[in-house]
Amino acid sequence: MTPIALTIAGSEASGGAGAQTDLKTFHTLGVFGCTALTCIVSMDPKNDWNHRFVPVDPAVIADQIETCASVHSRVDAVKIGMLGTAPTIDVVERALETYDFPTVVLDPVLICKGQEFGGALEVDNALRTKILPRATMTTPNLFEAATLAGMEEITAVEQLKDAAKRIHDQGVPNVLAKAGPSLGTGTALDVFYDGATLEVLEVEAVGTERVHGAGCTLAAAITAELAKGASPLQAAVTAKEVVSSSIRHGLRGNMPFLYVYQGEYRRS
Ligand code: PXL
């Protein structure tokens, strides 16, 4: 049976990140994708590609999740991306309670370019208390890992390991704390922790510049692999390969950063 994954995420119109990226990643990994859009992001070419952010009415988010959960005989895994507002977090929390999906991967997108910092803090706290405890796996980047772990900053691998453990101890069974190329190791380095196994996962770094949509691709690939029955560690290893391929085949348009393309990844 074809595995099915749902992404609860924002639309990023260009196709470089968000729900569009999630669907492409699911497809490339042989997983049927469906969506519940939480917000519409339109990057502004007249204002440094700032995010114009419009939340979707919470009732409409609930409707979309209801549709996905009802149309398909089962949803094997759910990815949660950008939620963006406290009312969105509330409605997603209720849906997770109602449908009790077997696998939930949380990409804890904390701040989005263009969001007010004041609002962002409220959203961070709501994400931590209402969604994080319902996730089976989470994929924070360096900034998000430091925030969720209550650390000042993370500048070394040992600190990243510590952050992964602290986030695990908040009730998330599997944590992939991501540094990517940011710790200067010459590799793309992430730390996996599941309470027993602590693994430093490294692949050759494709570059060091910021890549739009890489984090979405990683979490979506993990979701797809978990939907197919992979273990969390194996899902993380495969997802890093998918991200490397998507960066290697990334597109360079008019934005000052590369954006990912998943379509050249070949399953072996
Ligand atoms: O890459 C984080 C991200 C997630 N979701 C949406 C986005 C972005 C970044 O632009 O727009 C909708």
Q: How would the blueprint of this fold be written?
A:
Elements: E1 4-12, H1 18-28, E2 32-44, E3 50-55, H2 58-71, E4 77-80, H3 86-99, E5 104-106, H4 117-131, E6 137-138, H5 142-149, H6 157-168, E7 174-180, E8 187-193, E9 198-204, E10 211-212, H7 214-227, H8 232-248, E11 258-259
Parallel strand pairs: 1-2, 1-4, 4-5, 5-6, 6-7, 10-11
Antiparallel strand pairs: 2-3, 7-8, 8-9
Function: Catalyzes the phosphorylation of hydroxymethylpyrimidine phosphate (HMP-P) to HMP-PP, and of HMP to HMP-P.
InterPro entries: HMP/HMP-P_kinase_dom, PM/HMP-P_kinase-1, Ribokinase-like
GO biological process, one term: thiamine biosynthetic process
Written description of the protein model:
The protein has one domain: Ribokinase (UDP-N-acetylmuramoyl-L-alanine:D-glutamate ligase, 3-Layer(aba) Sandwich). The protein is 39% helix and 23% strand. It is built from eight helices and eleven strands. It has helices at residues 18-28, 58-71, 86-99, 117-131, 142-149, 157-168, 214-227, 232-248; strands at residues 4-12, 32-44, 50-55, 77-80, 104-106, 137-138, 174-180, 187-193, 198-204, 211-212, 258-259. Strands 3-2-1-4-5-6-7-8-9 form a nine-stranded mixed β-sheet. A two-stranded parallel sheet has the order 10-11. Strand 8 and strand 9 form a beta hairpin. Helix 1 (18-28) packs across helix 7, helix 2 (58-71) runs parallel beside helix 3 (86-99) and helix 5 (142-149) packs across helix 6 (157-168). The longest helix is centred in the last third of the chain and has 17 residues, at 232-248. The radius of gyration is 17 Å and the shape is globular. The mean pLDDT is 95. Residues 9-10, 12, 17-18, 41, 81-82, 109, 213, 215-216 line the site of 3-hydroxy-5-(hydroxymethyl)-2-methylisonicotinaldehyde. 3-hydroxy-5-(hydroxymethyl)-2-methylisonicotinaldehyde binds at residues 9-10, 12, 17-18, 41, 81-82, 109, 213, 215-216. This is pyridoxal kinase. Catalyzes the phosphorylation of hydroxymethylpyrimidine phosphate (HMP-P) to HMP-PP, and of HMP to HMP-P. Keywords: ATP-binding, Kinase, Magnesium, Metal-binding, Nucleotide-binding, Transferase. Its EC number is 2.7.1.35.
